[in-house]
Every structure is written in structure tokens, then in C-alpha cells.
UniProtKB/TrEMBL annotation:
PROSITE patterns named among the record's database cross-references: RESPONSE_REGULATORY (PS50110)
Xref: InterPro entries: Bact_response_regulator (IPR050595), CheY-like_superfamily (IPR011006), Sig_transdc_resp-reg_receiver (IPR001789)
Top-level lineage group: Bacteria
UniProt protein name: PleD family two-component system response regulator
Domain Response regulatory: 9-129
Keywords, in A-Z order: Phosphoprotein
SMART domains in the record: REC (SM00448)
Pfam families per UniProt: Response_reg (PF00072)
Amino acid sequence: MAYKLNNVAVLVVDSNHNHMQLIKEVLRPLGVNRIAETMNAKDALTYLETNVVDIIFTEWHMDGEMDGIGFVEWVRKNPASKNVFVPIIMVTAQSEEWKVMKARDAGVTEFLVKPFSAKTMARRITVVVENPRQFVRTDEFFGPDRRRHVTSNYTGQERRKDLMAKGDQMMDDTAVEELLKEL
């Protein structure tokens, strides 16, 4: 499905100027023209203090004190963050399974491996627009539901039900509204 993305505000965080330019050049033909860019996580956090964005693209490795994982964790977990529910797409060459899982566990919404095509990036944007994931809060995690697919024939342990019985919860619309009031 084609979307009009001209009102979508995007933040690109990447310390490699060429990679940042590539992401921007792929976004523009998709209709995205509100693109902010920062070269490190510290500048991105400063930008987010006064701006709300619709999608963040971030690199795993960045110059400065904080890498992409630390940046994602700050956006998701820091009480000062105004963008806790923003879709975050990790754009990186780091495609080892443990790194993908670490990014997911930090609160990344989607993962885009370099090199990528415009079609692949458009798919990731489509996923976050068409299938926004419910957010989950536990003692150890806050972010988009890490389960991508519901399987009707699942026979394993129902950890989420066990967690919910202990008081942790998936965030419904009311819980999301209450959390936003707290911020």
C-alpha cells in the first residue's frame, strides 16, 4: 500500500555521514521530507528533548559515549524521554543473531541490515505503519512486543501469562494513556 509520508518526522542517527546520506536519499523518494539528522546519540537525545518524531533510524556503532543500543534503551526507559513509543529501526551491518536479539531486547522495533535496498527500507516503514506492535512492560523490559507472530498451535510455556499473573502487563490503550500522563 502506498502512503503519503510527507508529514512523517524522521530522525536519523549515524556517525557515518555517507551512511546517513544514503538513508536520507532512500527516504526522500518515499515521500519523507521532514528528516533530522545527528551524528551521535548525545546530539540525538538533545534533539529529542524538544522534538517528537514518528520514526527513528539509528546505527548500532556510533562515535561518542553512547552506542545505538544505549540510545535505544534511553529512549525507551528514561523518564525524561518524550518518545518512548516511537518506532525505532536499527540500521546496521551487525547481523549476528545475538546482536539482533540484543537490539530487540533493548526495544528496537525493526532491524534493517546493511547493505539494504529502498524496497527493504520501504517494507520496514510499512510494517511499523500497518502493524504497530503493542508495548509490553515488565521489570526487565519495556518496548514493542517481541513476538512477531501468533501461532495457534504453540504448545510451549506461556511465560507472558505467568508474568501477567505476577502483575506485569501488556499495555492496552488505557495503560498507554496513563503512562503518557506520567511523562
